[in-house]
Design goal:
Two copies of one chain form a homodimer. Chain A is mainly beta. Chain A contains three helices and 14 strands. The longest helix of chain A is centred in the first third of the chain and has 10 residues. The chains hardly touch. The first copy, chain A, binds a DNA duplex through strand 3 and helix 3.
DNA sequence: GACCTTCTCACCTACGTGTTAAGC
DNA sequence: TCGCTTAACACGTAGGTGAGAAGG
């Protein structure tokens, strides 16, 4: 399996398959301050989550759609004086693992009809056996990754042949076990509904606004 | 599509396909007092839920497993003086609808490996367009139904050919919009974890036991 | 000490319960 | 009045947040 890094041609109809990242503005806000993603042993969701739109598929063919996170360079990183800086060689990569979208396999028509969400994906830094289920991607802390979407024309997720891969550079993030950049943390709290308890702006009907 | 009401022969290996209801004792308790299932517009889960075990499938073949609820007679029912009694002719049945198990299609080996759960199925009495999604079964209130399991040897849930159907008589229930039998209500509260707030026995660590 | 990881916690979202009162 | 349906509600389960303390 050799990932292809560019937009590829659909072999059946010679159409260009396109993968478009949703919530582009939100991702851009995070990208501008430096996106970080938390790792835990039990697995932590990503925020923002990965939502994409697909175009250019053959409506009648059947596809599997997968997600992975890919290392963007070979360095380890450190947050120093307010900036992320490379700090020596990175760890050896874990064996590649994919999150197979739960609707796979489905027709091109169905994939293109509405946005495809990978919000259930979890990141972990623990290589334990219980994490060998679909839903958790194992990565090293303090390294840079980005989300990658993979499309395979196949009826069977267990047999993946020719694969088209689409890296999404805007999603590039540093893996951490605790947030480093306070500006990044503010963005998480302001935008993630599950972190509403930490908002201090007094809006949205907080019952016990703290000072 | 002609449902077959008895245990049928697997055509590939001439083995008898078997469908076994799990939580047999729980279902029996409900059956002995008269099972009722709530209907709401937005859809209500069934309790007990439908969990089955499959046997006698060809391990290498691929199957779709479906669930439906089937009318057991042509009457409308009424709860009078502590008993369910037939009360006139029933409504015309809604067009048949199936809940396709989310793992379909899968190999016989996978289906037989562990119990198959349909706990996410919801019952509704509202024939609105938003209920035309997989997950909700439309039924008439105050009528008798029972759960039916269907097995199709096929790679595509959209094309269902020869279908083996297995009614589960122990699951027979009357559809209601509010519980009629107080004995039945007690069983629901005692056994459904989501109804723990209504238990009055003081056990299970209730923080504010009511009198 | 500096850096990173792990665990517990209060506080949310999301949604499955029967009850109750109101509606038809 | 009676029978049945609907919507709001308190109270659970289940699980996603960053904070903060503790550990290495």
């Amino acid at each position: 399996v050799q990932p292809v890094r560019d937009v590829c041609r659909n072999q059946a109809q010679n159409m260009a398959v396109r993968v478009t990242l949703e919530q582009y503005q939100l991702w851009q806000q995070f990208h501008s301050v430096g996106t970080e993603m938390i790792l835990t042993k039990s697995g932590r969701r990503m925020f923002p989550g990965c939502r994409i739109r697909l175009a250019g598929l053959n409506p009648e063919s059947r596809y599997c759609v997968l997600m992975s996170v890919e290392r963007v360079d070979g360095s380890r990183y450190r947050f120093q004086h307010g900036y992320w800086v490379a700090a020596g060689p990175g760890e050896v990569e874990f064996p590649k693992r994919y999150f197979i979208h739960q609707d796979s396999p489905a027709t091109g028509e169905k994939w293109m009809k509405s946005a495809v969400s990978f919000h259930k994906v979890k990141l972990t830094n623990s290589n334990s056996s219980s994490n060998f289920i679909n839903g958790k991607l194992i990565v090293h802390s303090m390294h840079r990754y980005c989300i990658c979407i993979h499309i395979v024309e196949s009826n069977d997720p267990a047999h993946l042949n020719y694969m088209q891969s689409f890296p999404l550079p805007l999603t590039t993030f540093v893996t951490v076990t605790a947030y480093q950049n306070t500006e990044l943390t503010k963005l998480k709290i302001e935008n993630n509904p599950f972190a509403k308890g930490f908002r201090e702006d007094g809006a949205r009907g907080t019952k016990n606004p703290r000072r």
